[in-house]
Amino acid sequence: MKELLEKILKEGTVLEEDVLKVDSFLTHQIDPELMSLVGKTFADKYRDKGITKIVTIESSGIAPAVFIGLELGVPVIFARKQKSLTMTTELLTASVYSFTKQTTNNISISTKFLTEHDKVLVVDDFLANGQAALGLIELCQQAGASIEAINIVIEKSFQNGRSLLEEKGYKVDSLARIKSLKNNKVHFVEEEN
Ligand code: G4P
Ligand code: NA
Ligand code: NA
To answer: Membrane-crossing residues (predicted)?
Structure first.
């Protein structure tokens, strides 16, 4: 997505070789116009796929996910990292290890929002090592829901998330694919065709 790549080049900054800071439009402050375009771009590809739910994880996955859900006219569910006071019904739960933070989080979704009748787009802001996406996939599997694709705003293609997900048979669809962040510069994967 051209507008996203331009935004990353203009406002993204590289921290410690392999981390991209995009807090001016995605992970802290949010650019609604750009997120709306993210929503339209993904929705256009999946309009005829019978998608019934968007599934993401708090917090930074929520903004792009909501715009995709708005475009497709389906609800958006975000997995919670902490159990909420009102989550009194049965839960689907998976554990997610973060390489970046070296911590494990339990993530959960109420069973009442995801069932075997659902066809899901899994959404996240970043794909690094794929652990968050794997956790969301596990929640969908527990519900018996099927997954059409994993939609990622920014993929760090030099980390192993994509190959891990593809090995398991999932389609990964990313709007920006970063080949390297070496020397504090963003290099994108060249588009094929
Ligand atoms: P993984 O899910 O792909 O395995 O990634 P990892 O555990 O390494 O990443 C942990 C967190 O860091 C995730 O967010 C992920 O989205 C985010 N992240 C990974 N790489 C980058 C990066 O280069 N830049 C930025 N800005 N974030 C990155 P989180 O902390 O679990 O959630 P939240 O921030 O959405 O609340
Ligand atoms: Na995230
Ligand atoms: Na984040």
So the answer is: none
